[in-house]
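[Help] Beginner question about ligand-bound structures

Sorry if this is basic. My supervisor gave me a protein sequence and a SMILES string for pyridoxal-5'-phosphate and asked me to "get the holo structure". I don't really know what that means in practice or what format the answer should be in. Inputs are pasted below exactly as I got them.
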Amino acid sequence: MFSYLTDLSCPRCGARYPAEAIQGVCRCGSPLLARYDLSRLAAESSRAVFTGREASLWRYHELLPVSRAENIVSLGEGMTPLIALARLGERLGVPRLLMKDEGTIPTGSFKARGAAVGVSRAAELGVRGIAMPTNGNAGAAWALYAARAGLSALIAMPELAPAICRAEVASAGAELYLVRGHIGDCGRLINAAVARRDGLQEVSTLKEPYRLEGKKTMGLEILEQLGWTLPDVIVYPTGGGVGIIGIHKALTELVELGWISGQLPRLVAVQASGCAPIVRAFEAGARESSPWPDPHTAAFGINVPKALGDFLILDAIYRTNGCAVAVSDAELLAAQREIASTEGALVCPEGAATVAAIRVLRGRGEIGEDDVVVALNTGAGVKYPQTLDATGVLLEPDGEIPPPAG
Ligand SMILES: *Cc1c(COP(=O)(O)O)cnc(C)c1O
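Answer (accepted):
No worries, everyone starts somewhere. Holo just means with the ligand present. The predicted complex, written as C-alpha cells, is below.
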C-alpha cells in the first residue's frame, strides 16, 4: 500500500473522523491527528525499505496521508543535511552537536514540508483553493505549492511582515491582503472570507490535519540519518509548535512500529524572551499556555502569542523529560553570527535561537558533555537580511587595502 492512513482522531476528546472527507478541527476545537495502520505496516514492511529511495520526504509515503503517488505535489523538499557542528560544539562544551539544516529547502524554510504534504492531500481530496493568515514563511510556502498544484491561494499577512515573504506570495500569483494589524486580525478576516466563498479550505496552523504530517518527516529523517539510533536531545525553535509536535509524533509512531527502541530524546522548545508563552507554561508546570501580551522578536517565525496546539507541545516536552527555554534577541542574533563565522552556516534567527539555548542548558548542566544534541535550523539566513551584519570598509578605486592588522 502507498499510504497506511486510516482515519483522524482528536487528542483531546477521542472523537474519530473519516480521512476520506475534507476535515478541519474537531467539534471540541482541538486539532485532529492522522492515524495509520501501524501494526499492518510493521507486518508488511521494515525500515530498510527507505534505503535507496529518492532523497525527499516522500520516501516515507507509507507514513504520509497521500493515497496515490501521482497526487504528490513536490518541489524536491526534504532529506535536508544533518551536519556536524564540531568547532561550535567544542566551544559550547557539546562536542557531539549536530544541525538538521532546513536552510536548503524550497521556499527557504521548513514550512515547505507542511505545505507539500498539506497541499498534495488537499488537492487529492478535491479542495480547489486554500486560505490562510500568516506571519510570512507559511504563507510563502503554501502560496508557492498551491501554484504548483494549480490551486488558488488567499493569503492575509500583517502589513509589517517581512518583504521577502510578501514577495514570495505575490510572485506565486496568490490573492494577497496586507492587514494593518497582527496575525490574529488576519485570521478573523480569512475566517470570514472562507465562510462567504465556495471551495476554499482554511489551512492555518493545525486547523487542518496534514501540515503536521509533513513536518513529522523531520523526525523520521533525523532518525534515519543517525542509522536509527536515538539522539539524547532535539532542540526546536517553537512558535505554533507544529514541528515539535510532529517530531514527537514521528518518534511515537516509530516506537509503535518497533523500528526504534530506547529512551526517547528529550525535546526542548526554544522561544524568544519577547514571546515565550510555552516557556512560561512549562515553568508553571501547566498543561496549556496563556496568551502572551505584546509579542515581539526578530525571529518572526516564533512570534506566536498563543498556539492552538499548546497542550500538544507541552505534552511532547513532559513525556520526553524535555524542557522549554527562552533566549533574548541579543543572544539569538549573536548566535546567528557565531554559527556563520565558526561553521559557515548562515542560519535563520529562529535556528540560531537553538544554539543560544544549548549554551544556556549546557551552563545549567541540563545538557551533558556526552549528549548527542540535534539543533534544528528551520530556515535560510538569507531570508532575513535585516538581522545580518553587512558592514565592510569602503574603498575608492584608487585606494589601498591596508596590511593585515596586528
Ligand atoms: C514557522 C517557523 C518556526 C516555528 O514553527 P512551528 O513548527 O510552527 O513551531 C520556526 N522557524 C521558522 C523559520 C518558521 O518559519
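A couple of things worth pointing out: The chain has a mean pLDDT of 97. The pocket of pyridoxal-5'-phosphate is lined by residues 109, 111, 137-138, 237-243, 301-302, 348, 350, 378-379 (CB under 6 Å). Feel free to follow up in the thread.
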